[in-house]
Amino acid sequence: MTFVLTPPVQASVAVDNTTNRFPVRRIFCVGRNYEAHAREMGNDPDREPPFFFTKPADAVVDCPCALPYPVQTQDLHHEIELVVALGTGGVNIAPQDVPAHIWGAAVGIDFTRRDLQQLAKDTRRPWDMSKGFDQSAPMSAIRPMADIASLTQGRIWLNVNDEPRQDADIADMIWSVNDHVAYLSRYVTLAPGDLIMTGTPAGVGAVQKGDVLTGGVDGVGTLEVQIT
């Protein structure tokens, strides 16, 4: 096969305690998956079906990292999330079968240009430019599932300049990992290399140039991001 342009470098994430890399195919993100966060964003936290948006694969950045404050926003927000990495794909996956498809997990930040997101909501337009911008998904190294005790409970937290901002438990998810991955597989054929960012707890807020963000999920990993 001959390409008319040089193919882009494969997007990837580090694998914990190795020099290996996890190839990223797609990034799916679950919206409003914690009740308290749904409330702080002015939404009804009742258990409605999950919904998803996407980020481009090359939005991933290995942590620790230094990221420039993105263009076209005056209101950049942090959203700490558990990330699951699929090792096998499928369609119409049963919830109880989801764990067999998960290769590992990581910690990520879904950076959001909140002012652009609000404009998109107000004008009933897509969220792409508020969520899928360059370097909008910094992540810790992916830890294989053999080294992870649980994806159903564990503290999830984020500090900005050592000040606590987000602090909850992944058990607080409205839709568990098994439930929302299974639901997503009804709409798309999931594949090896897909990442799923599983939603953020309450406490999201703005960051500025010079801020240092640290966060993690107990038993999964930690990350550090400096905004430059």
From TrEMBL:
The keyword Oxidoreductase does not apply. Keywords: Hydrolase, Metal-binding, Pyruvate. Its EC number is 3.7.1.20. SUPFAM superfamilies: FAH (SSF56529). It is an enzyme of class 3 (hydrolase). It comes from the Bacteria. Residues 27-227 form the Fumarylacetoacetase-like C-terminal domain. GO terms for molecular function: acetylpyruvate hydrolase activity; fumarylpyruvate hydrolase activity; metal ion binding. InterPro entries: Fumarylacetoacetase-like_C (IPR011234), Fumarylacetoacetase_C_sf (IPR036663). This is Fumarylpyruvate hydrolase. The lineage of its organism: Bacteria, Pseudomonadati, Pseudomonadota, Alphaproteobacteria, Rhodobacterales.
